[in-house]
Amino acid sequence: MLETKLQFEGIVISIKANYFIVEIQNNNSNSSIIETINSLTCKRYLCTLRKRLVYNGLNVNVGDYVKLQSIDSKNNRAVINEVMKRKNLLLRPQVANVSDVFVVLSVEEPSLDYDQANRFLVTSEQTGANISLILSKIDLIEDNQLVEIQNKLRDWGYEIFPISVYKFLGIDSLINKLYCSKLSVLCGPSGVGKSSLLNNLIPDRSIPIATVSDKLKRGKHTTRNVELYSLDQGSLVADTPGFNRPSLDIKPLELGLLFPEIRFKILDSKCKFRNCLHRDEPGCCVDKSWGRYPLYREILDELINSHL
Q1: What CA–CA distance (Å, rounded) separates 163 from 161?
Q2: CA-CA distance, 190 to 104, in Å (whole number)?
Q3: Which terminus of the chain has a smaller tally of CB atoms within 10 A, N or C?
């Protein structure tokens, strides 16, 4: 057991029941801490929360930066003494301090659902992180179909990465993007190939995968918990459980800012009224002819009704 009063900074890699797997990071300017960290044979520790944090009802999420004390280097145990301020929090799946969100959608098996894609993008936008789209299983459709899908989604305002894990198409471009990201999250419906992609990116990790349900034509849930994986020095990526319809907890007035088509428009010109919902209000500066507008109105009406 280390005999030191120093605190070690780490990141929560995964959560198992009431325990936290924390990886100590060598990013502290304190020379004593750096020297001690370098002497550790293990950088990952099974941790519990300090009792005062439990009593205060503190929630700890994967991606949280924490400070550790009482490090038992023999049994790889430690205690979380402090949780540092978060940059952001993706609510579902719950991941903190996200730099990039990659919404993974398959073009076939299961087929692309634009309403579902829209909801994943809207929930991802709430983090303020960089948002990109991954189109998986492109080997299952014709080239002209892929071009049509890409053209439609590109108008939504997102960078698109079309890939095929099976034929290793587009993987290099995606890897370059992931390596430039500090903490990336792969999210999307079940069965779209998130775990298959990670198995390709991290060959030494065996992540369970499953096929699409023949009956429901939906993906089967294989990833049960959020877990961070190291891609390169300083780059982490999260595999997350799939789910098919994200719930939306957003104030109606805030919804427009989660659509790049509206957000960029109102930066250039302002609506007449500050509480404009971009429906039929006089003086609204937002054109109603853009492709995703019907999806925006559908969610807006849903949120208005839920807030009545």
Answers
A1: 6
A2: 10
A3: C
